[in-house]
Specification:
With about 160 residues, the chain is an all-alpha fold. About 75% of the residues lie in helices and about 0% in strands. The protein has two domains: about 80 residues, Orthogonal Bundle (Rna Polymerase Sigma Factor, Chain: A), CATH 1.10.1740; about 70 residues, Arc Repressor Mutant, subunit A.
């Protein structure tokens, strides 16, 4: 199969997941789209230079992660209000009651307040649905380190949500 066809299949298969990963790291829909585009452009450049990629999904996540790290070093996190003003819509039905909306906002705020390494692990595990082993490959850590981060992130979330 030609290189461009393989790349397009990878884009079709993983672009939505990479977008969600980026979005839950930067909380800005337009910026997340830009990060996804940059991720696939850098991956294409890497392949076009004749480099071989063993696991395209893990490679894409690693590239996206590095791009996000660079981005977050340049920009402070937005406040919850700025997030809502920028059009964040969690997909709740308009008729959803205020209690559910409050619970969602509290959970989102709790996730945002986690240390970066815990937020990344919890998001990839419970929003993206990846196993600790898959996450470990994507972020270049051991499976044990990832499992500990997930566990500690969940502990922090329980404490934060309990007091809301």
């Amino acid at each position: 199969m030609p290189l461009n066809e393989e790349f397009m299949k990878a884009y079709e298969k993983y672009s939505d997941a990479i977008f969600r990963y980026c979005y839950f790291r930067v909380y800005d829909r337009e910026r997340a789209k830009d990060l996804v585009q940059e991720t696939f452009m850098k991956t294409w450049d890497y392949i076009a230079q004749g480099n071989d990629i063993g696991n395209i999904r893990a490679f894409l996540y690693r590239v996206a992660r590095n791009i996000i790290i660079d981005y977050t070093r340049k920009k402070k996190e937005d406040s919850l209000e700025a997030l809502q003003e920028s059009g964040f819509n969690p997909g709740l039905d308009e008729r959803a009651n205020k209690e559910i909306e409050f619970d969602f906002q509290a959970a989102l705020q709790a996730i945002k307040s986690l240390d970066e390494k815990y937020r990344e692990a919890v998001t990839m595990r419970y929003i993206e649905g990846y196993s600790p082993k898959e996450i470990a490959r994507m972020i270049d850590e051991t499976e044990n380190v990832v499992s500990v981060r997930i566990h500690r992130g969940l502990q922090q979330l329980r404490k934060k949500i309990k007091y809301v």
